[in-house]
Amino acid sequence: MLAHYMMYSSQQGRNYTLGDEVPFEWSASKTLNLRNEIVKQLTLGAVGYAQWQTTDNSIDVSPSTSRGQAALSTLEHTHAQIYAAGPGIQALTEFGLFDLSYYEEFGAKATPSGRYLYFGVTLGGIPWRK
Predict the structure, then answer these.
(1) Which residue segment(s) compose the domain that 11 sits in?
(2) Number of domains in the chain
(3) What integer pLDDT is reported at residue 28 of this predicted model?
(4) What are the tens digits of pLDDT across the range 69-127?
(5) String of DSSP letters for the chain
């Protein structure tokens, strides 16, 4: 599991600042030790994440109508959230570590949702290689 806190700050040329967020990543897996020349370990399991906005958005605009002020207030006080889960596989080989994960997002509020495919590679030899 991994959790951290993301704080956003203003950006030059933008009249808004997003609220802070807490992303939480998780996985549950089983590692198999293989007696293979190339693939030494294979890890299979489920992966996922959740992300919650913890503070209000800040929008530096001054609407001239009450309807505009109400809309601005709604935008500033709306907090985004999203969840995702899917399968993941990792292979430790004599060439390095290969990681493939697929996430299906759901439960989105005030943010778009979709699908996310992640592929990571860490190249390098295994220390016990002869």
Answers:
(1) 2-123
(2) 1
(3) 97
(4) 888 888 889 999 999 999 999 999 989 999 999 999 999 999 999 999 999 999 986 55
(5) -EE--B-----TT-SEEPPPEEEEEEEEEEEEE---SSEEEEEEEEEEEEEEE-S--EE----SSHHHHHHHHHHHH---EEEEEEEEEEEEESSEEEEEEEEEEEEEESS---EEEEEEEEE---TT--
